[in-house]
Amino acid sequence: MELMTVEFTLDEIADSLPHLGVAILHLLHAGGNSAVRGDVLFQKELFLIGDYIEQVGDDADFTPHIFGPYSEAAEVALGELISLGLVRRSEGGYTLTPDGVRVWEKVCSVFPDDESGAIEDFKVFINDLSVDEVLLFVYITYPEYTRESARLRDILKKRVPLSASLYRKGKVSLEKAAFLAGMNIESYLDYLKR
To answer: What are phi and psi of 69, to 5 degrees?
Structure first.
C-alpha cells in the first residue's frame, strides 16, 4: 500500500492557521527573527502576550505547571508549525524558516499595530534574560501560576540578586525591582549600594 503525501501551498497554510499559530509566528518573527531560546522562554513569552492579547490567552489556556504558566495548546501549535516546515528548532532555540517568514508576511496583519507592538516588546523584554530572571518576574507578578512550580523555592532564594540583575539591565523600574525582591524601596536601595 502506497502512502500519499499531501503538500499544501504557503497560501493554503496561511489561510488555515489558527489564531494561536499566527501569534507564535508573530512572536518568532519579532526582534528581527531572533531565536526564542527554548521551551521555558517560549511558554513565558507567549504567556505574557496572552495576558495582553485576550484571544491569544483564551486560545492558549495557560495553567499552573512545574515551571509556572504552561499551555499544552501552545506546545501542540508550535509542534504543528515545525512539522509544516515553518519553524526550526536548533540548539539556539526556535526560529522561523524562510517559508515561515513568507507565511508570517501573509498573516501578520491579523494583529493590529498595538498588539504587534506588544508582541515585539515582550520579545525584547525577555530575549536577553536568563531563565531564572524570567521565572522570578513571572512567579512574583503572577503568583496564581506557581502552585505546581518545581522551581519556586529555588527562585525565591535568589530573588534579591535576580531582581537587581533585572534592574541593572533596565528591564524593570526601581519600584518593580524592589517588589520582585520582596523589599521596600529604602531597604532595596541599601542592598543595591552594597
So the answer is: -55, 135
